[in-house]
Amino acid sequence: ADTPTPAYLDNLNAEQRDAVETLDGPLLVLAGAGTGKTRVLTTRLAHLLETKAQTERLHPQQILAVTFTNRAAKEMQERVAQALGRPVEGWWLGTFHSLSARLLRRHADLIGLKSNFTILDSDDQVRLLKQIMDAEQIDPKKWPAKQLMGIIQRWKDKGLTPERVNESVEFANGGAKHLYKIYQERLKVLNACDFGDLLLHCLTLFQQHPEVLKQYQNTFRYILVDEYQDTNVAQYLWLRAMAMVHRNICCVGDDDQAIYSWRGAEVGNILRFESDFPGAKVVRLEQNYRSTPHILAAASKLITFNDGRLGKELWTEIDTGDKVFVKGVWDGEAEARLIGEDIEALQRKGVGASQIAILVRAGFQTREFEERLITLGIPYRVVGGPRFYERQEIRDALAYIRLVAQPDDSLAFERIVNVPKRGVGKATLQTLHQYSRDQAISLPAAARDLLDTEELKPKMRQSIGGLLGDFKRWREMLGNSSHVEVVETVLDESGYTDMWRTSKEIDAPGRLENLKELVSAIGEFENLTSFLEHVSLVMENAQNDHEEKVTIMTLHAAKGLEFDYVFLPGWEEGVFPHQRAMDESGVKGLEEERRLAYVGITRARKRATICYAANRRIYNQWQSALPSRFVDELPDEHIERSSDTGLGGHGGNHSPGAWGADDWMKMPSWASDSGSTPSRNPVSGAGDRKFASSGWQDRVRKNVIDVKPDGETSYSTSSNSSKYKVGDTVRHRKFGSGTVRAVDGNKLEIHFESVGTKKVVDSFILPG
Ligand code: ATP
Ligand code: MG
């Protein structure tokens, strides 16, 4: 009998419907922006569950769906539930990272981790790399640890374990590979991994344990992937491995929106799909449902300046709308003022703030808009910038919480052992580090082990012992008090809150408010485990109220999103296209910048406004700026130019005379006065550097931690025996020579000529 077609299929055009209904076999949906690729994926998920659950006993657990951000995953979850009229649970929906983390926790032991392994953020990574370089005596000034981190990340993106790296890079005179190896070993000892490891370890796991891979290959009957053009090699290998048995893999993407090659993404993955999966069906979508014809035409024309595209036609039924505005302004402040005024005008017309976005090329650009919007009282959110959980006091507090939940978290321990000050100095930490390395145990474990020896000064033993005792008590508290109470107690009794209460720093009150806010946030979770998981994976949704807000974000982070009104500031040579992209990657870099511009324009539904300033202050210096070449590449018939650069004329390269050589010399009076600061919003100098990265690093900076169920604790300690015996004459690095009186594991009681009898560990006996 004919079953009626489900309602959700009615909202699709013929090609989309074809893509949704072709459930079996490999399928590639290759289509431009706004053609409904993501909608196809969502509907396909609903359709799978609707049609196959009964007939073929398809369980949600047999579906694997990959999105580019956690936010996108959440949205997909909601959309599918809406289409089906019921919630769906148990399926594997998330980013490559979150899915890999979930998988690894189940099999951690097989690759030498415990299931509660910590996922390091990039600060932790750098700190660890510094330690390693220090031990290897590599000059950190000449070879910055951050650079090494980048190199290692690229290798991981390519799926290369240290053994498989066969390229030699200049870093540390070719030593990077060796450092990478040590780094991986240290991570294992610390029961930790970094973001790149999540995928890399999965690949290793699949390789070394085919039976595990087999299990997943059999499980995942249907695989769906959004934003396929931005997968890197490791992700590609991961997917291909998963899809091998059932081969029901559906990937959607757009080669013109590949914007993450600097993070190792390979647009080749999408180009190769048909040869990877012979017999694959390819569906092209050409109708755009998002934007007005002017927006679409402007973006389409711009992207034709790139070579080697697959090429796509886009059309729309929408037949009205503004042209794309291109506005020249005097400087950054004028740009912020102009955009602020435009936003106010939109709001007066009843446009909701959530339908407005300012999309910047680099994070440092956000500050000026933030200040302007604050001044105007327009609520906004910065997506992808330094956020609540990245503030110093929050990270400190999180380290305390991590250490409660995870007794062997070395990096958390190191972060807070002397915060507030407990007199634990560099020398003590060095002793702990050396012992932890020597015994292959965590730092807290090393501290515990050395407490009953005289390797640590009595004062140290007292303060560290006190702290460790406190942690033990706090952990025990978890058994009979709420986790919120425990956190409050921890922050109080550790002296951390007091540290800020008595601080004279101007921002101390704000920090105390933040700590309070943190405690309320924790109250929204059942336990510390779920809270810490939240902090790590859902940070990009750091919204806790539902007020409508203007969104400020980088172009990279805006991928896949749409807004009625989009502002695209800073379209100047050097800013966008970004200088570094052009310097480092030449034409390729420029083309990626152009794709980024394409992504930017195509985020707009009703109106896109592009701005460029004639002057910019960069690192405290005023510079004149040229409009971006992308401005030039836009088709005149679809744009409306205006200019108020203070230079006369009507702006743009299209108005002869407007940008004459003489005009560029006409700098404002305060600009020549190089020493003093003009009385306008200062663009802060060096501080901006930390914003200069865009979307990806923001994501990576997340702090992913997983912990055991509350209250459960485990200690790793060494159980070594000593190579020394009673009667041996030895030299200790601090106490000089003496005679061994007693041996207890690796602990020795030695009678020293200078200081009498002491209990020490044999790690610190000098050789020979
Ligand atoms: P991007 O390349 O930017 O990720 P996309 O191809 O994933 O875009 P979607 O975000 O799925 O496109 O769709 C763009 C917009 O068009 C959305 O608002 C979506 O709801 C709408 N849309 C898609 N298909 C249809 C359709 N058949 N009828 C009406 N609206 C549609
Ligand atoms: Mg999409």
3D structure, described in words:
By secondary structure, this protein is α/β, with parallel strands linked by helices. Strands 9, 10, 11, 12, 13, 14, 15 and 16 form an 8-stranded mixed beta sheet that branches. The chain has a 6-stranded parallel beta sheet with strand order 3-2-6-7-1-8, sandwiched between helices. Helix 5 packs across helix 6. The chain is globular, with a radius of gyration of 29 Å. 47% of the residues are buried. Residues 538-544 and 648-718 have low confidence and may be disordered. The structure holds adenosine-5'-triphosphate (ATP) and magnesium ion. Adenosine-5'-triphosphate (ATP) is lined by residues 11-13, 16, 31, 33-39, 254, 257, 289-290, 560, 562. Its EC number is 5.6.2.4. This is DNA 3'-5' helicase.
List the helices and strands and how they pair.
Layout lengths: L13 H8 L5 E5 L5 H19 L7 E4 L3 H15 L7 E3 L1 H12 L10 E2 L2 H14 L9 H13 L13 H4 L1 H14 L2 E2 L1 H14 L1 H10 L2 E4 L7 H11 L5 E5 L14 H4 L1 H4 L4 E5 L7 H11 L20 E8 H17 L7 E5 L5 H11 L3 E4 L8 H14 L4 H7 L9 H14 L3 H8 L7 H20 L5 H11 L2 H6 L6 H16 L4 H10 L12 E5 L8 E6 L10 H23 L2 E15 L2 E4 L4 H5 L5 E6 L16 H5 L3 H4 L22 H6 L28 E4 L3 E9 L2 E6 L3 E6 L3 E2 L2
Parallel strand pairs: 1-7, 1-8, 2-3, 2-6, 4-5, 6-7, 9-14, 9-16, 10-12, 10-13, 11-12, 13-14
Antiparallel strand pairs: 14-15, 17-18, 17-21, 18-19, 19-20
The site of magnesium ion has 4 residues, from helix 2.
